[in-house]
Amino acid sequence: MKTQEYIQLEExxxxxxxxxxxxxxxxxxxxxxxxxxxxxxxxxxxxYSALNQGHVHPKILQAMIEQAKKVTLTSRAFRxxxxxxxxxxxxxxxxxxxxxxxxxxxxxVETALKLARKWAYRVKGVPRHQAEIITFENNFHGRTISVxxxxxxxxxxxxxxxxxxxxxxxxxxxxxxxEQAITPNTAAICVEPIQGEAGVIVPPEGFxxxxxxxxxxxxxxxxxxxxxxxxxRTGKLFACDHExxxxxxxxxxxxxxxxxxxxxxxxxDEEIMGxxxxxxHGSTFGGNPLGAAVARAALRVLRDEDLIANAxxxxxxxxxQLAEIPSPHxxxxxxxxxxxxxxxxxxxxxxxxxxxxLKDRGILAKETHQHVIRFAPPLIIDQGTIxxxxxxxxxxxxxx
Length: 400
Ligand SMILES: *Cc1c(COP(=O)(O)O)cnc(C)c1O
What we know:
This protein is of the alpha/beta class. It folds into two domains: about 5-55 and about 305-400, Aspartate Aminotransferase, domain 1, CATH 3.90.1150; about 60-305, Type I PLP-dependent aspartate aminotransferase-like (Major domain) (Aspartate Aminotransferase, domain 2). Helices cover about 40% and strands about 15% of the residues. The protein has helices at about 5-15, 45-50, 60-70, 85-95, 105-125, 145-150, 155, 175-180, 205-220, 270-275, 290-305, 305-325, 350-360, 385-400; strands spanning about 25-30, 30-35, 40-45, 100, 130-135, 165-170, 185-190, 220-225, 250, 265-270, 330-335, 340-345, 365, 365-370, 370-375. Strands 4-10-9-8-7-5-6 form a seven-stranded mixed β-sheet, with helices on both faces. It has a four-stranded mixed β-sheet with strand order 1-2-3-13. Strand 11 (about 330-335) and strand 12 (about 340-345) form a beta hairpin. Helix 3 packs antiparallel against helix 11 (about 290-305), helix 4 (about 85-95) packs parallel to helix 11 (about 290-305) and helix 12 packs parallel to helix 14 (about 385-400). It starts with a helix and ends with a helix. The protein binds pyridoxal-5'-phosphate.
């Protein structure tokens, strides 16, 4: 079948909840993907940072095949011999005492919010069902009804109310607003250390440290959603590490499975995680042995291949090179590590047409929030590959 036939099938039989670039991928390997016509593309999105280890990493593939032959799902009604090992490895890697595994990122965010509410009632002493959670404008934490209840994006919300109460939304980066918004009922502050979906918005230096200080002073939990920024993407294990901040709860997902399988988790110390009692939370697939084995391999690859340091080095190089392109369309180039946003001026006519032009030259990137092109290739990328891509990116940014 040809590209157009696949597209037509998809449009006919599938819900139209995405607006993908018209490339039909049939194979991936490392930083590259191949379409059904045999064209090769450099993947500069990495499935929104789920593919930090690259496509079909052989070591993760091997772990997945081996585990799939043994046992794939036990449910948490019984124990399995992979999850305990994942728990220990997550703890050794992150420094948090405990973890709770889920599948999608949104589920892990919901898990953290539930835990924060329970902490508010059982530890802080907030009157039952009065807990408030502070969030930030232009956030992206997922698509469930509770999570979109604190989204500021009209498209995500418009036709989907009524919403879950108990959330406050403040300007991102504004510590004074946070200080004023904290009440005795505030359970937690939930923040992305860099807002990826909003267009790679990096907060002012000191924002995360300020949140940590306020959370400590006012007896509030700090929750970092590192689903996109975590596991090496920004050149540190967690983006919070850039400011030396340790949140009370860390939410991870995406690259936790190297793109093979949905695995997410909430990390916290026993003092907080210990609050969950049997029956209060769960998931049929969360913590399954297949996902746990895949996640263990994905974390090993991250460490053994020194991907975090590579992300720092390659990210610095790519950012520098992109910033030097004298394009009349570019307003700003920003980011950390290999999470880079090129914001175009409003008069550039939107990022979509630039992404289409990049696609025609063998580079897959996706517009985010209309005016930003995100460059977030797998963390295994080398300088030779970046040097292959730069002339094409230059050509698009200069001649379109
Ligand atoms: C992708 C993402 C989520 C949601 O993850 P899903 O697996 O799509 O549910 C939540 N928070 C952030 C910061 C993300 O980038």
